[in-house]
Amino acid sequence: MATQHSRSAARIMMAPAVFVLLVWMLVPLTMTLYFSFKKYLPLRGGDLGWVGFDNYVRFVTSSAFWPAVQTTLVIVGGVLLITVVLGILLALLLDQPMWGQGVVRILVIAPFFVMPTVSALVWKNMFMDPVNGLFAHLWRFFGAEPVSWLSDASLASIIMIVSWQWLPFATLILLTAIQSLDSEQLEAAEMDGAPPLKRFYHIILPHMSRAITIVILIQTIFLLAIFAEIFVTTGGAFGTRTLTYLIYQRVLESQNVGLGSAGGVYAIILANIVALFLMRIVGKNLDA
Amino acid sequence: MARSVTTQRKILNTAAAWAIGLLIFFPILWTILTSFKTEAEAIASPPIFLNFDWTLENYAIVQERSNYMRFLWNSVIIAGGSTVLGIIIAVPAAWSMAFVPSKRTKDILMWMLSTKMLPAVGVLYPIYLLCIQLGVLDNRLAMVVILMLINLPIIVWMLYTYFREIPGEILEAARMDGATLKEELLYILTPMAVPGIASTLLLNFILAWNEAFWTLNLTSVDAAPLTAFIASYSSPEGLFFAKLSAASTMAIAPILILGWFSQKQLVRGLTFGAVK
User: Fold this and answer.
1) A29 lies within 8 A of chain B by CB
2) With CB atoms 3.0 to 4.6 Å apart as the test, which of A56, A274, B245, B247 could cross-link to B34 if both were Cys?
3) A residues 181-200 near B, CB within 8 Å?
4) CATH code at A174?
5) How far apart are CA A279 and CA B131, in angstroms?
């Protein structure tokens, strides 16, 4: 049905979207690459010339680098573990027959719609504040000493806040996947006398595996980039400086653009490795 | 699932699910409740749940002190503008990819997806610098354009998956019946495409409303939306729980309501059609 005429029309219709995205990608990327090879300090002398791979070496050898990598891995890994495991359990529960399923779904999904600055600040002040926070009240009620969450257990606190934000996403996608499972298959297994745990391992889990992979990959991309949650809670202090936050500090706070740009290139490479896996799965789906 | 279960099982499921649902929702509920308390009641020990003197004064104070309406207006303009602009650019593209696919369609779609994976912090300085040089730092129009670009890949993808579900045979049948191209577009394709476009609009409005990297880094006063407004409560105002809660409630209420309508689209939009 596609004629020569409609083909050229199609190309014209696609052009604006392709063009703006191309510009959006190429211009800043080129600039980041350019800066990354320069000693560039806008507030202290400006452009101080080419330095080759100096920034790349200095970024990874600075004392802040490995702790930042470690923090990033702990946060991403911790949130993934919590959201995927709890997400599976919650999706299984929500799939069961019950009264008021629609309302429960709404309650569970709600945190995803809360803007990051609000959830971070509400958790920080109203729950984790060591004097007036709800946790402090709870701890005192049980006769325990209230914890200064964001300074003494900073990583765990951030993981908790971010997990609260992303659990709905994992649950919703895993629930969608479970609901697409052919119920006859489950019934057959049930009639053959397969116990629930076996049914879960041999039928439900394999069916969900693709959805789980997608949840992990998409969340990883978003979690590597979390910013607002750290910005309004600890500001990167108390060992919560992730790679993203470190680059932000280098670039905008200390205005060491060359060094920060080299860090940016590392971040881009890292994200692309994850993206490659995700795109392979999504691409397969496109052919089907 | 059409499995029969005992009533006892159902009661157990219901109790467990509601308990967990309320636990997850609790921080939001607590914020809304606290917004109606006085500051003294908000930090009372032990905490007061419902039996306090409900008051609206926090809302009045927040509005008066920080001009909430201006931030709200910025959020509406930035989220709404970027979404509408994105749809205008994306509809023709998604349309042509869905109905006149070529060998390269898949590559273009995948490439668009890859631009979404670009970590924002990697291009923070170039964008910041460009904004300064063009004189558009803290400018609403610039934020509209930037958030449009951030969400354009998702918009194209969502529209593409929706459009692809419109069967081509209907178009052919209409053509056989002598429909002109204009009639075909107006009476057949548009009605079928509207639900998909509406869903896309809704989800991307929500994503743009909550975006908190570019809005925090590129706005300060004139163009600051609600994300930045709340961040300004970081300290020390954040310690006034009732006012923080009122401000937070006002920032999230519109989106919570919209969000409830967009559950289904959320899955499709955020997994690029890989889970439906």
Assistant:
1) yes
2) B245
3) 183, 186-187, 190
4) 1.10.3720.10
5) 31
Please answer yes or no on whether B231 and A231 come within 8 Å at the CB atom.
yes
B152 and chain A in contact, CB less than 8 A = yes
Asked if the Cβ–Cβ distance from A7 to B97 is below 8 Å, we say no
Residue A175 lies in a domain: yes
In a domain, A272, yes or no: no
Chain A residues inside the 8 Å CB shell of B130:
27-28, 31
- Please tell me the distance in Å from A128's CA to the nearest CA on chain B: 12
Output the pTM of the full model: 0.87
Question: Does any domain span residue A229?
Answer: yes
Q: Which of A215-229, A244-258, B9-23, B185-199 has the lowest mean pLDDT?
A: B185-199
Q: Do A110 and B244 touch (CB under 8 A)?
A: no
Domains in chain B, please, with CATH?
7-59 (no CATH), 67-232 (1.10.3720.10)
A-contacting residues in B 39-98 (Cβ below 8 Å): 43, 45-47, 89-90, 92-93, 95-97
Does a structural domain hold residue A211? yes
pLDDT digits (tens, 9 = 90+) for A72-81: 999 999 999 9
CB contact under 8 A, B24 and A260: no
Burial class (CB in 10 A: 0-12, 13-18, 19+), A64: middle
Contact residues on chain B for A6, CB-CB shorter than 8 A:
100
Per-residue model confidence as pLDDT tens digits over B90-141: 999 998 888 888 888 888 988 888 888 888 888 988 999 999 999 999 999 9
ipTM of the complex as predicted: 0.86
Whether residue A145 is predicted with pLDDT greater than 90 in this model: the reply is no
